[in-house]
Amino acid sequence: MSKIDRLTNLTENEEILWQDRKRYLGLPLSFTIYSFSKNKFYLKTGIFNTKSEEILLYRILDITYKQSFGQKIFGVGSVILNTADKTTPILEIRSIKTPDRVRKALSNLVEQRRDEKRVAGKEMFGAAATFDDVGDGDFDLDGIVDHH
Known about the structure:
Layout: H1 3-12, E1 18-21, E2 33-36, E3 40-45, E4 51-56, E5 60-66, H2 69-74, E6 76-83, E7 90-97, H3 99-117, H4 121-128
Antiparallel strand pairs: 1-2, 2-3, 3-4, 5-6, 6-7
């Protein structure tokens, strides 16, 4: 077995903890599949032209849950992930069942992965902070006004 085959098997053997499809009118009629394991979030789209995206959970910076009136009627909602991932800085997990439970589960896993990797908040802010959120000139959030 080659080295790449062993690495592929490691990824394929990772247990999927949650999976759902983007839903229309509450029904899973889409070819957009969302899932996550204890280490990664996966997004797969398309039927003829397929695209797959993986985001390491410890790179998720913020998780937001939203549910419009129409989504409430059909028992679905959306979860928005703000990440430190360059290719997917914002990912909206649209129209899934039990979005608040998914948000809570993801939040817990993200914290566990950060603790395991010993990723501190300051390191994550550095990855995502490209502008001054507060407007006081402290661009790197170290408490000292930066002059650029």
